[in-house]
Inverse folding.
């Protein structure tokens, strides 16, 4: 139909249909006894990733792949830091590896999820904003801040998000106020190795509950900065307690680096920091003091 | 608002007899009257595994594929079930939170106003319901200074009441690391 082929709207629609057909093979439906179904992304031949926040206290699941095959799956690893859950499939067929893509501001994207009837559901949106790396509340580093303008149900979160060329941008996740975030493919890749081998992603831990504070003016010159992190609580037997940190102290620097924002602390506590000595610079009763601490591994759970 | 019935006529629907009697017990414990499906109920409570034609708005407890007026998680409390039955009977739609609902997010909202340590202490006193005078006693400062901090907090947080200041100021700012 040459007439139709020249019509841009029909052309766009046909392309979306075509992309959806191609994506179908990588969309997984995850069923857990007694819970609403969830979506996942077939990441490798026998590995499905999903959004971790929907799977508290779950160990096994059934996975239905795009070709209709129904497989038992074990949850082999979870990382609340990046919201990635890894499921290992029993007896999966070969899967085509997904070509990844970089997010471009304003680009059209397709979000896929499992629907209630064994098929897939599709959402069309645009990349609303792209930002630098960010740190989640659970301390995970996410390579890019990708916000997609589309509606999404909880059931669809965890499915793949593709760009117009069919390249995989990452896994969809519902953030605050149900905003759709994309966990970039590179972030999923980087946590997948430790998740498959150890079941978790190790991160440094000090055992501190911190709140950003504006330093009183008198302290700003002593600290050399206007903000600090007030210690609202310390974990029993954590590295900070052992170092002598008290509730009410204000943390201003770790290992010589000023920390006015929690993300700057998280940056210092990557997997390589575990076991390393660090100097904690604190304000206590208007005075500056330094306490040496040894970074521990973040306890699970 | 005087003619809102305190007691609803609720029917229960489930294919399994044990489930049916459990649901009926929940209806009774919420103080409502259990009636037959054919007896013009004002709401229907179900586990969503039956496909009877609904003659009244349905509250489904547990996961399912349908789109009832009310859907609650399987572990919903009695209070939630009671509230959902009243809401659907009044023509509203009720949804429990999805496990995927947004507790995954950035450490601290970037635009969040940053408070001083003293302002945080004052805010904690407000949270505990203290008057300016009692807060002053707790913190060892004058009531006048407390008033000054409270006004600063209202301005920073864009709050018009003490409750609003507490809700905005003490929310989600603590990061465990």
């Amino acid at each position: 139909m040459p007439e139709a082929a020249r019509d841009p709207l029909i052309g766009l629609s046909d392309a979306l249909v075509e992309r959806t057909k191609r994506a179908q093979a990588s969309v997984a439906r995850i069923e857990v006894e007694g819970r609403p179904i969830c979506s996942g992304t077939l990441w490798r031949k026998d590995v499905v990733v999903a959004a971790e926040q929907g799977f508290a206290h779950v160990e096994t699941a059934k996975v239905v792949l795009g070709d209709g095959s129904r497989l038992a799956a074990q949850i082999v690893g979870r990382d609340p830091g990046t919201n990635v859950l890894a499921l290992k499939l029993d007896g999966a067929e070969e899967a085509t590896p997904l070509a990844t893509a970089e997010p471009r501001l304003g680009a059209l994207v397709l979000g896929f999820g499992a629907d209630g009837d064994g098929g897939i559901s599709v959402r069309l949106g645009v990349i609303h904003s792209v930002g630098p790396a960010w740190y989640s509340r659970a301390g995970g580093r996410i390579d890019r801040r990708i916000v997609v303008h589309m509606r999404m149900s909880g059931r669809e979160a965890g499915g793949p998000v593709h760009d117009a060329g069919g390249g995989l941008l990452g896994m969809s996740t519902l953030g605050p106020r149900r905003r759709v975030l994309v966990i970039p493919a590179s972030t999923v890749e980087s946590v997948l190795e430790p998740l498959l081998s150890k079941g978790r992603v190790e991160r440094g831990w000090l055992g501190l509950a911190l709140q950003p504070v504006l330093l009183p003016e008198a302290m700003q010159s002593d600290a050399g900065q206007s903000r600090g992190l007030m210690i609202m609580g310390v974990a029993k037997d954590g590295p900070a307690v052992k170092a002598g940190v008290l509730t009410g102290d204000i943390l201003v620097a770790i290992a010589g680096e000023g920390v006015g924002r929690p993300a700057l602390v998280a940056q210092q506590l990557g997997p390589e920091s575990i076991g390393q000595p660090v100097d904690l610079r604190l304000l206590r009763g208007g005075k500056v003091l330094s306490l040496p601490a040894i970074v521990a591994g973040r306890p699970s759970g | 608002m005087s003619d809102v019935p305190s007691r609803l006529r609720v029917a229960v629907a489930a294919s399994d007899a044990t489930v049916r009697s459990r649901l009926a017990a929940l209806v009774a414990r919420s103080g409502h009257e259990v009636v037959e499906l054919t007896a013009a109920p004002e709401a229907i409570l179900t586990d969503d595994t039956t496909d009877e034609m609904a003659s009244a708005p349905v509250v489904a407890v547990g996961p399912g594929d349908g789109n009832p007026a009310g859907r609650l998680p399987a572990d919903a409390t009695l209070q939630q079930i009671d509230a959902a039955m009243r809401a659907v009977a009044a023509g509203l739609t009720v949804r429990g939170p999805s496990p995927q609902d947004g507790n995954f997010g950035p450490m601290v909202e970037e635009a969040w106003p940053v408070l001083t340590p003293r302002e945080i202490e004052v805010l904690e006193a407000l949270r505990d319901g203290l008057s300016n005078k009692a807060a002053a006693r707790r913190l060892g400062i004058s009531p006048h200074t407390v008033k000054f901090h409270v006004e600063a907090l209202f301005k920073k947080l864009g709050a018009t009441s003490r409750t609003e200041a507490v809700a905005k100021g003490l929310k989600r700012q603590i990061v465990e690391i």
About this structure: The two ends of chain B are 50 Å apart (CA to CA). The longest helix of chain B spans residues 143-157.
